[in-house]
Amino acid sequence: MTLDLLAIGPHPDDLELACGGTLARVAKAGARVGLLHLTRGEAGSRGSVEERKREAECAGLALGAEVVEFSDCGDGALRTGEAEEDALIEVLRRLRPELVLGPPTPDRHPDHGRAHRLVEAACFYAGLARRGRPEWGEPHRPAAVFHYMLHDAFEPRFIVDVTESWNEKMAALACYESQLYQGSPPRGDLRPRQPETKVSSPEYWLAVEGRARHYGLLIGAEFGEPFASRLPLAVSDPLSLLPGGLR
Fold this sequence. Notes:
The chain is α/β, with parallel strands linked by helices. 35% of the residues lie in helices and 13% in strands. It is globular.
């Protein structure tokens, strides 16, 4: 299988929080979308590895992804060495995405910055003929690598209108019952109480919507998701940049 877009996240739920609306939008438009989680969230304060895997698969289905895969880069001390690069190179050559969405530069969680460096390196090395093994397939370098926003804000190079795919994003986030705030537990719920974290708070849930509304407002939309690009974006038709296209 080859993909149009591969989104790569440090932990299950990072992709859905950062760019779930974008992933759902392009999938609804007919693009082949895949999700790769670099860890299984095994060092997280809440939820088991098995729970987080099920939640990630549920979220991928809600977003319309054709592929949901996991790597083993080490949650809580994400590794960025040659072995991890090779594992990602194999995925890139097998799935051959034209576009990769990856983590931002240094962020609140140290794993995010490490994942950024790993994705940048692997996307470049995947195009080198003498790197990797022949059985991984022909060299392949994605045409573009963009970076989504997680915790720390940055000045975006572009913002995607995700108004029409907001419900799919919310459905994907609802899959992460062990991680994200899902409302008050029902009366009589006897399950063990899990540690409180930043992302499990109701305030964080409100912040997710608030950020999307803020970036949507900047482009005249209800909801938006911001992205960064290391290089300038090429535009062949400036009129296509007008809101709604050329009227």
